[in-house]
Amino acid sequence: MVTKHKQFKELCLANGNPEAHYIEGLLQLFLEDNIGNGLYHLWQSSNGNNENGTYLYGLLNLALGKYRKAKKFLDKLNWRENISTSDHCWERIKNSIRDIRIEWTHDYYTNMVNLQPWPHCHPQDNMALICNKCYYYKRLNQLYEFAIKDD
Predict the structure, then answer these.
(1) Which positions, given as ranges, span the membrane (predicted)?
(2) Is the omega angle on the peptide bond into residue 18 within 30 degrees of 0, that is, cis?
(3) What is the mean pLDDT for each group of 10 consecutive residues in the chain (151 residues)?
């Protein structure tokens, strides 16, 4: 049975199924600890218009300090017109990884802090109040808070 599932997964990946790439990205990133492969699969997922893959790929690139690339992908979700897409993506991703420990490095933290607008343009604890200056920081900070919740 496992062999059939593995074959099916490989077939889905080979045919560019965005959902399969999203799931494989999660597995590679958080269970296999393979950042390169994980990002590749999330990128493939995003190219197939998977919103969750796009959102997580953008967030992870923010954490890696690849701000321009990250913003390009996060902006595909049109958050300026409709923030609810980002909110829904976050809820689905959070549910997918809720039982997985996320390793948050000092570099990720530094890259997040470098995004923080100064002076603060909107209250940090209100995700509904955002602008171009604070959206990216607030979203990455949301992932950070989630990652350290059990530390």
Answers:
(1) none
(2) no
(3) 83 95 96 96 98 98 98 97 95 93 91 87 78 91 89 56
